[in-house]
Amino acid sequence: MDTRRTLIFSAVLLATLTSAFVEELDDSFLTTRTVDDSWIIKFYAPWCSLCKQLDPVWHQIGSELKSLGSPVKVGKCDATANIGLAKEFRVKGYPAILMWKKHLKYNYSGPRTRDAILDFTHRVSGPVVRSLNSLQIFQHAISRHDIMFVYVGATSPLKGNFMSVAEELVVHTHFFSAARDVLPKDVSLSSLPTVLLFKDTTFHTYTEENDGDLRSWVNRERFPYFSKIDSFALYAMGESGKLVALVLLEERSLCEESERLKDLLRKVTSEQRHMYSRHFYFGFMTGNDYIKGLIMSDVIEPSFVVVNLSNDGYFLPHVPVKTERQLRDFLDGVVDGGVQCQGGNNVVQRIKRLIYEAKAMLTLLFTQVPLLSFFLLSFPLAIAAAFFYLCCKPHK
Q1: Quick check: 51 and 57 in contact, CB under 8 A?
Q2: Where is the Thioredoxin domain (predicted)?
């Protein structure tokens, strides 16, 4: 009995402590919030299993921000009971994670992990453009961030444009400003002001003539050239307009061939960056359910595929890719039209995809819960058969 009481007391104490870090919000938040407040809010539905899985992570985030003395408050809101607040934040699915800062709303669409959400919170809660005042601070920043956009120079129309872009896209990447003498000596600049991109141990100088609109350029270049890609990143990459070249790998232990193909793609990415970076992102992916749904068939692991998220299209090599030459021929064919794009999002493809997804769901249900699946499928059929019988039965 004492052990049971101890466990109950511990559970109550834990719930009390964690609830102190996360505030339950309702529609009154619309009138009680102040302009100086910053909030990270999780919108949930009581029946949502994914929302419940996020609960422990959300309380960890609340505890972490509290211990750091962060000005960001952590809240959660039942969107089904507080329609006004959910409508204000344009909540469309659950769980939804949004940040409110000085009347601006920022939607979080990344992985539902503690570190990823905390990184988003720290980035958005501070200045949208952070100042680098010394070479030491610059080196510290570049050691922490894989990708940095840095404005260099005095006040100018370009700086105003840079600030506007940063305010919109700070949810995705990091923006800084610096004086010329703060940068390393090997960073050569032909003129000022300018915007620099630091990525994958190198840098690129923005020019409107070559790179186009600043916002579009930032949106295109905010991902690493080569990385592990999950479904969140893949969807975001599709919004940039670039294609994504992937090597599909096993979800667990990788075989020798998987490691070889991953290294092959990384090598081509590094050595031929000047040829392909304008057209592609590169990476590897495990847990390939999204790709299976796109292709509507099982995928060979390991193998290569290029996807076009703007129209749900995909490209497959004509022959298995084994060498660097074969991989480059495949990528060149995608660029110049030699490799045909398959799939798409036309009406026929959408219908095929709906049928495929329905079959996949039914197969999964019958595999995991056969009795319930049989009942769910047979019940409407039985109702339809009874209705048909009554309609066709001769009347006396």
Answers
A1: no
A2: 6-126
Residue with tokens 């003539």: 209
Domain shared by 239 and 334, yes or no? yes
Q: Note whether residue 51 is domain-resident.
A: yes
Catalytic residue among 48, 77, 255, 391: 48
| 1-24 pLDDT per residue, tens | 455 555 444 444 444 444 568 999
Using DSSP's 3-state secondary structure scheme, residue 106 falls into strand
Q: What is the CATH number of the domain that holds 150?
A: 3.40.30.10
* Per-residue b or e along 40-79, where b marks 16 or more CB atoms closer than 10 Å to that residue's CB: bbbbbbeebeebeebeebbbbbbbbbeeeebebbbbbbbb
Count structural domains, the chain. Answer: 4
Q: Are residues 337 and 351 in the same domain?
A: no
- Bridge-based pairing state of the strands 72-78 and 104-108: unpaired
Active site residue 392: no
Q: Are residues 312 and 229 in the same domain?
A: yes
Pinpoint the alpha helices (H) of the chain. 2-19, 29-32, 49-67, 83-88, 114-125, 135-144, 157-169, 208-211, 214-221, 231-238, 256-271, 273-276, 289-295, 324-336, 347-368, 370-392
The catalytic residue among 51, 77, 255, 392 is 51
- Residue 68 within a domain: yes
Its domain, for residue 85, covers 16-113
pTM as predicted: 0.72
State the Cα–Cα distance between residues 357 and 355, nearest whole angstrom: 6
Q: Is residue 81 part of a domain?
A: yes
Using CA atoms, how far residue 96 sits from 75, 83, 91, 100, in Å, is: 12, 14, 7, 13
